[in-house]
Every structure is written in structure tokens, then in C-alpha cells.
Amino acid sequence: MHRQPARHDARRPAAHLVRVGMAVALSVAALASAGCSRRPPSGTPDGAVRELVARLRQLHGDPADAKAAFDLLSRRARDNLASRAQRYSAATGKAIAPEAMITPSRFLLRFEPQRYTAQIAGAHALVDVAGLLPGERVQVPCVYEDAGWRVDVALPPLPPVQKRPGSDL
What we know:
Helices cover 38% and strands 16% of the residues. The chain is α+β, with helices and mostly antiparallel strands. A hairpin with a 2-residue loop joins strand 3 (137-145) and strand 4 (148-151).
């Protein structure tokens, strides 16, 4: 018995491609929605503090790591670092990015954080960071801005630029 070869239907491959395309689109949509269900670190004040500690720990001179830590800081802290970078650049003639002002040698944990607890009051929060021992505790201020929680590190204000007497600069 000899079977007739199936006639080629020009619409069949197109219909098959549409089904495959729909399956791929649904898979991508499912993956995207699964990824969206996880809150970003800046979604909560304690998440922002935890993420900043983690990013500062991995900071070893890589500009991308410094930028990631810088992005978790409040506008006030970022502005302070930008002013410091601008002053450094003017004094040395060498341009430096504000995030480069975050140096690994200046960051040292006083204790190993074990628990992060946030107390939120409107757009401000205090995150209580506790270690294992009773004296290992610090409160970290945060502020909600730019659609996320930012760590409001209190940096000392820059002193005024000193000029030599009789200098026009």
C-alpha cells in the first residue's frame, strides 16, 4: 500500500509559528512577572540598609560597586559626596566621580549585623541594626525619595574653602 505524500499547506507553518511565538511570549511574561514579585532592596528601609552593608562589603575599588552603593544613599548624602568630589577635582585637576569618594578603607563594621528592624514614620524611618551582643546596636536613618528608601548617612558638612590673605582666588 502506497501512501500519498501529504500536501503542503502554506498556512500550516505560519499557524505553527504563531503558536510557538505565543508560547515564547507567555513564557517571557511569566518570567517577568516572577521577577517583579521580588521587592527591590530599596523597597523597604531595612532592605536598603541591608543592601548598603552588603555592597560596601564588596567594595574593593571597582567603580561599579561604588556606584551601586552610592545609589542607595539619600539625596543629601549624595550631594555631600558630589561636593567633596568637586572640591577634590578642583584642587588636583583630576576629575573624580562622586561615588569614588566612597572608599573601602573608610568602611569598617563595628559588629556583624544579625537583625534589621525598621520603624517608619511617613517618609522617614529608623532602622535598628542589632548584632549578637547587647551592646551591638545602631540606628540608621532612612528617607523615602526617588520612589524608594535611601540610607541617610550623616556626613560632616564641608568646611569653607580657605584662602590665603590677599589672594584674589
